[in-house]
């Protein structure tokens, strides 16, 4: 009774925070049951990978073989390490660790994506290190990061997006016309900063922070950058602006580097840039007719396109996560928008015959949402947002939505030898690929959706864009965002004095 009364009192004082308190003190029998089901799904996916594709990047479940879509770096295995650990699948984790220690070889004559290798492999390894404390993971992370570093040797410091892992020669893909991609260039900060913090070698952090310095020099008033940036000039090319493919995680990382550094003065610029981008974000939001679903437009020049990728469904989670950094008023506004957008994303799933979302949607007047590209490749973004919203609001509706999505995956995507995507969410015709992010992200977020909030607490961990939790470590270092050291130090001192903080 006393606890209940205290809880009621807290509810009155802290409003939204109550969801968090509830989920710490309660482990609901239904939650236990549901997370066991998700764990069983992970076991099925993992066992299939172990049986048919061990050491390969990904499993093709229909043909029951492995393929090396990332250069033969064991992408699924590395991407799965932390999920196995968090779910308590210790024997499986142990076997995977031995493979990392004895067989993972990065000396490959292969043109790797800097972005994909960073978020899956560097991120996966550092997360496994943070969770298990086993040094083999950090040594391997350092090995692959050293091979990626020459990609940043450009006149502007904006990286080339492809690099040969054995020889270190870097370039951009031909189809970008020589440009670098925004998300590919601005989503390595979390992993490389984490690596510097854990190895005491500043070079990783310095390299990736130069990118932010460069982008900050000409950051627009609405904080929205085109998806192509020229690595010679360091400025944006004329191109689409989007929170979907090729733009998404650049914005995500502005917020998360601030969280990773424990929101100190040393990372304040990231939060400022993120808040600037959120002003631009608001200008992209429109509503459908007749049902008034909120959606995020893409922008080409001055005009908005009524199109949204499922990939952009990470944004409700990002808004919810960032909402608490605003003062009252704005904080509620962003959280409310996050909830509205999550409802839209959930309806991307609910509106199809298979109850799985297509890759993108169009919004025509009077028709609400229409699926465009109709495949589903087991993507995580919507369940990721549901996870954040559940943690932040404590509203069980988000668990129900997540459970419904999980059941649709079970019904349509599960086969005897793993999980596959759908070529078409209207017909349910299956593809032949178990994407590594299904184990790294989709199943992990679903598991955490039904776990107490003390499991990977958002006060202690920040997830990279591939759902690898990295420990939050207070940033005390001096960051030079394009100012001289003296100027920068003075600026930090002035801000600190204003905020009553010490920076020495
Ligand atoms: C993942 O590799 C990451 O979440 C990335 O940021 C976007 N695409 C996939 C999942 O859809």
Structure description:
Helix 2 crosses helix 15 and helix 11 runs antiparallel to helix 12. The chain has 18 helices and 18 strands. 51% of the residues are buried. It has one domain: Glycosyltransferase, CATH 1.50.10. The strands form 8 sheets. It has a 3-stranded antiparallel sheet with strand order 3-4-5. The C terminus is likely disordered. It has 504 residues and is mainly α. It binds 1-deoxymannojirimycin. The site of 1-deoxymannojirimycin has 10 residues, from helix 11 and helix 17.
Summarize this structure as a short list of keywords or feature phrases:
binds 1-deoxymannojirimycin, mainly alpha, disordered C terminus, coiled coil, membrane, 18 helices, 504 residues, glycoprotein, Glycosyltransferase
What is the count of DSSP helices, taking H or I runs of 4+ residues?
Answer: 18
The CA-CA distance between the termini, in Å, is: 47 Å
Strand element count? 18
Low-confidence stretches are 12-23, 479-504
What is the C-alpha radius of gyration, as a whole number of Å? 22 Å
- Under CATH, the topology can be stated as Glycosyltransferase
Strand order of the largest sheet: 3-4-5
**Could you estimate the helical fraction of the residues in percent?**
40-55%
Largest sheet descriptor:
3 strands, antiparallel
Number of domains: 1
The shape, in one word, is globular
Bound ions, cofactors and other small molecules, one mention each? 1-deoxymannojirimycin
CATH class: Mainly Alpha
DSSP strand (E) fraction? Answer: 5-15%
Q: Which CATH architecture would you pick? A: Alpha/alpha barrel
Which structural class best describes the helix and strand composition?
mainly alpha
Q: Residue-averaged pLDDT, rounded?
A: 92
Organism: Cephalotus follicularis (Albany pitcher plant)
Disulfide bonds: 313-345
InterPro entries: 6hp_glycosidase-like_sf, Glyco_hydro_47, Glycosyl_Hydrolase_47, Seven-hairpin_glycosidases
Binding site for Ca(2+): 465
């Amino acid at each position: 009774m006393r606890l209940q009364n205290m809880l009621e009192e807290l509810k009155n004082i802290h409003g939204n925070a109550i969801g968090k308190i509830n989920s710490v003190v309660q482990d609901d029998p239904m939650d236990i049951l549901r997370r066991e089901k998700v764990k069983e799904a992970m076991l099925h996916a993992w066992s299939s990978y172990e049986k048919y594709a061990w050491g390969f990047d990904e499993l093709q479940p229909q043909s029951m073989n492995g393929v090396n879509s990332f250069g033969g770096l064991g992408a699924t295995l590395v991407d799965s390490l932390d999920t196995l650990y968090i779910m308590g699948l210790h024997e499986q984790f142990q076997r995977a660790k031995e493979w990392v220690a004895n067989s993972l070889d990065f000396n490959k004559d292969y043109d790797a994506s800097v972005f994909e290798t960073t978020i899956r492999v560097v991120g996966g390894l550092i997360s496994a290190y943070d969770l298990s404390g086993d040094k083999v993971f950090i040594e391997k992370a350092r090995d692959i990061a050293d091979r990626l570093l020459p990609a940043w040797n450009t006149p502007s410091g904006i990286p080339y997006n492809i690099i040969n892992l054995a020889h270190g020669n870097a370039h951009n893909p031909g189809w970008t016309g020589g440009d670098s991609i925004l998300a590919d260039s601005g989503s390595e900060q979390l992993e490389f900063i984490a690596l510097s913090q854990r190895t005491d070698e500043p070079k990783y952090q310095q390299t990736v922070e130069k990118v932010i310095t460069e982008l900050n020099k000409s950051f627009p008033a609405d904080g929205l950058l085109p998806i192509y940036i020229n690595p010679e000039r360091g400025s944006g090319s004329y191109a689409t602006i989007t929170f979907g493919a090729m733009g998404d995680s650049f914005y995500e990382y502005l917020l998360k580097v601030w969280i990773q550094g424990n929101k100190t003065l040393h990372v304040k610029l990231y939060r400022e840039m993120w808040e600037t981008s959120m002003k631009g974000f608001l200008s992209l939001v429109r509503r459908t007719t007749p049902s008034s679903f909120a959606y995020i437009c893409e922008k080409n020049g001055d005009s908005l396109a009524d199109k949204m990728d499922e990939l952009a469904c990470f944004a409700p989670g990002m808004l919810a996560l960032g909402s608490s950094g605003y003062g009252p008023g704005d904080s509620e506004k962003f959280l409310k928008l996050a909830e509205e957008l999550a409802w839209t994303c959930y309806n991307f799933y609910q509106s199809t015959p298979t109850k799985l979302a297509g890759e993108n949607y169009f919004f025509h007047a009077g028709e609400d949402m229409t699926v465009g590209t109709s495949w589903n490749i087991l993507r995580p973004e919507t369940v990721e947002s549901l996870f954040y919203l559940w943690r932040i609001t404590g509203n069980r509706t988000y668990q129900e939505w997540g459970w419904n999505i999980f059941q649709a995956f079970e019904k349509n995507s599960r086969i005897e030898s793993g999980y596959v995507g759908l070529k078409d969410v209207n017909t349910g015709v299956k593809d032949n690929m178990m994407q590594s992010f299904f184990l790294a992200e989709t199943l992990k977020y679903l598991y955490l959706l039904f776990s107490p909030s003390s499991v990977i607490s958002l006060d202690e961990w920040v997830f990279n864009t591939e759902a690898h939790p990295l420990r939050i470590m207070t940033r005390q270092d001096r960051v030079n965002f394009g100012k001289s050291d003296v100027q920068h130090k003075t600026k930090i001192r002035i801000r600190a004095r204003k905020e009553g903080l010490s920076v020495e």
